[in-house]
TrEMBL record:
Its EC number is 3.4.19.12. This is ubiquitinyl hydrolase 1. PANTHER family: UBIQUITIN CARBOXYL-TERMINAL HYDROLASE, UBIQUITIN CARBOXYL-TERMINAL HYDROLASE USP2. Residues 1-184 form the USP domain. It comes from the Eukaryota. One of its GO terms (biological process) is protein deubiquitination. InterPro entries: Papain-like_cys_pep_sf (IPR038765), Peptidase_C19_UCH (IPR001394), Ub_carboxyl-term_hydrolase (IPR050185), USP (IPR028889), USP_CS (IPR018200). It catalyses: Thiol-dependent hydrolysis of ester, thioester, amide, peptide and isopeptide bonds formed by the C-terminal Gly of ubiquitin (a 76-residue protein attached to proteins as an intracellular targeting signal). It comes from Amphibalanus amphitrite. Keywords: Hydrolase. One of its GO terms (molecular function) is cysteine-type deubiquitinase activity. The lineage of its organism: Eukaryota, Metazoa, Ecdysozoa, Arthropoda, Crustacea.
Amino acid sequence: MGVTTHCLNTKRPKCGHESVTFDPFWDLSLPIPSRSGQVRLQACFDLFTKEEVLDGDEKPTCSKCQKRQKCTRSLSIQKFPRILVVHLKRFSPQERFGRKLNTTVDFSMNGLDLTPYSAGQTPCRYSLYGVANHSGTLLSGHYTAYCRHPYTAEWYEYNDSRVHVMDQRNVNSGKAYVLFFELAGSKHRSGSTHV
């Protein structure tokens, strides 16, 4: 992931220095922009990559000015992984008593387009193949999983020792906690291509 900072020093001489640092990631932890109702996954990505102003105690040191300066910071993805793991921040520190956000995050099962979040606007589409769900609270809860079979494309629910076929329309729910995507057109270990 690329982190771009832009110095906002307006004193003479004006700086405007821009620097990009690279930060490898295993997963993306996305904030949920609403406490209830329904939002699209793209809104979570928009909030995650939104340009922010760093000021006060958050001011970084500008490598050109050699002083702590007010800056802007934005995030973009430099290289997309074959497997993308998206963690939805359902337990927010802003929520009292660790209350869980039960907002339904509407995500695409096929063709999730992440091109707008690419540093070079490289076309990038993902297909969902698994969801880890959490029901309950921060102190007490239960996990289940939904997974798409790589050959039949049927969806299965895994709940403790029970596994059964499920309706694809029920995959998207307010319990979705971690989403697993595969880059469209990438080769699976078995050699089959997922689209």
